[in-house]
Amino acid sequence: MRRNLTRSNAPIFWGLFGAGGMLSALFVPMMIFITGIAVPLGLLLPAGTMSYPKMLAFAQNFIGKGFIFAIISLSLWFAVHRAYHSLHEFGIHAGVGAKVLCYGFALLGTVICAVSLLGLGF
Amino acid sequence: MSTRKPYVRSMDGWWKKNPYFVEYMVHEATALFVAAYVLVLLVGVIRLGQGETAWNGWLAAMQSPVSVIAHLVLLAGAVYHTYSWFKILPMTMPPVVVGGKKMAPEALTGSALIVAAVAGLALLAVVWRIAL
User: CATH number for the domain including A55?
Assistant: First the structure.
């Protein structure tokens, strides 16, 4: 019996999914509260929390940059992995095209995020 | 070309018939809420790179009532993602053994939710510290 021992690429996508799911579970609710509710409504946090100089300094800081990049890119990989595997639930037998579309979207988001963040300098 | 017309059972709304699957579909859908939020954030990063005027425009857009309401909806979705992510954690990770006994799934989920709450509050504290 001959077996095709080609390695699967599934663990890579699953790893990105797991990392993104975990990171977003820990931080995204509070981030939505801060950037989407508290700061726009002027609640709780000091005035000017997200002012241009403050946010620029945050995004130029090595840790700040890394945090923004990890949250955005890994959350995208998490979401597209779930969306891709959910197609089955709707009776769509996802093939290579759907895979390229889903993971390609996350890759595009990752690249745009990386280029934008690197463009801000250190 | 074949003239066979095999019967294929429709998959329309199969999950609506069982609360367990409804919950499954809802928790799967929370990923889209998370994705929608990080795309808003990505636009913010791009606007930040375009200068102060562009950034202030993004901040002003975030202040619109539509945006605030949308973020309340996203927040609900994200909180449910956190809850469901840790609810299924005991099924996705190797058994945790404490004192020679396997940790109960409820205890694992509960501890993870406490960790998540602490992580969120720590993030708020860090943002506060930077903002001052």
Answer: 1.20.1300.10
Looking at domain B14-131, its CATH architecture is: Up-down Bundle (1.20)
DSSP per-residue string spanning B67-100 = HHHHHHHHHHHHHHHHHHHHHSHHHHSPPPEETT
Q: Do the domain assignments include residue A94?
A: yes
Structure confidence at residue B80 as a pLDDT band (50, 70, 90): very high
Domain-embedded: residue A104: yes
Confidence check on the interface: ipTM exceeds 0.85, yes or no: yes
Q: Do B131 and A34 touch (CB under 8 A)?
A: no
pTM, two decimals, is 0.91
Q: What angle is formed at CA B57 by the lines to CA A51 and CA B69, rounded to 5 degrees?
A: 90
Kind and range of the H or E element at A4?
none
CB of B108 within 8 Å of a chain A CB? The answer is no
Question: What does the mean pLDDT of chain A come to?
Answer: 92
A88 touches chain B (CB under 8 A): no
